[in-house]
Design a protein that fits this description.
mainly alpha; 7 helices; 81% helix
């Protein structure tokens, strides 16, 4: 099988490549930092701690399985010329839909389904996205790109936690997080074309 010749841009913008990380981490900052606990207390007040622990464990398991499975598929697609954008798009759109379900869930079963769907969707994007630096950044700029990834991870977590702290309307919060996720995913994807 012939190797794919990488078309690494002469000057890939490390900030724009890393921007999707801000969107992804904004979602996790809101969900894992505040909203998962809040929703479990709301829907299962008597067993909130136990329910939270089970949901968090199930989510971590789903994340691990999806990232490994998608990683193999993503690499196979990359060898055939894919820029991995399809994984970012599926993850962002699926994540946006799962956010709406998560914040609208009226039962523990629906919350569980929405949270698992959110984990699966975002990890469809996260697995392939972790290869964006070697895919699109020249070797001499890897440090700059990695620095942007780290900075935007922290900023995203803060944005998500602040959003979940100050936006009290669940639909507005879901919409805000979904918009951040979709816009940052689109900006990053535009660099990969």
């Amino acid at each position: 099988m012939p190797a794919v010749t990488s078309k690494v841009p002469a000057v890939a913008d490390p900030f724009r490549l890393a921007l999707f990380w801000l969107g992804i981490q904004a979602v996790w900052g809101a969900i894992l930092g505040i909203s998962l606990q809040s929703r479990t207390i709301e829907l299962s007040p008597a067993d909130a701690l136990l329910v939270y622990g089970r949901l968090a464990t199930a989510g971590a398991f789903v994340a691990a399985v999806v990232q490994v499975a998608i990683g193999f598929w993503s690499d196979a697609r990359r060898r055939k010329g894919s820029r991995r954008i399809e994984f970012y798009a599926v993850g962002a759109v699926g994540g946006a839909a799962a956010l709406a379900l998560f914040y609208d869930a009226r039962s523990l079963a629906l919350l569980t389904a929405a949270y698992v769907a959110l984990q699966a969707s975002l990890n469809v994007a996260i697995g392939p996205y972790q290869a964006i630096i070697p895919d699109f950044v020249q070797r001499l700029r890897i440090g700059v790109a990695s620095s942007w990834m780290a900075a935007l991870q922290g900023a995203g977590n803060a944005v998500g936690a602040l959003a979940a702290s100050f936006i009290t309307n669940a639909k507005m919060l879901a919409g805000t997080l979904a918009a951040i996720l979709l816009v940052t995913g689109a900006i990053t994807s535009s660099v990969c074309t």
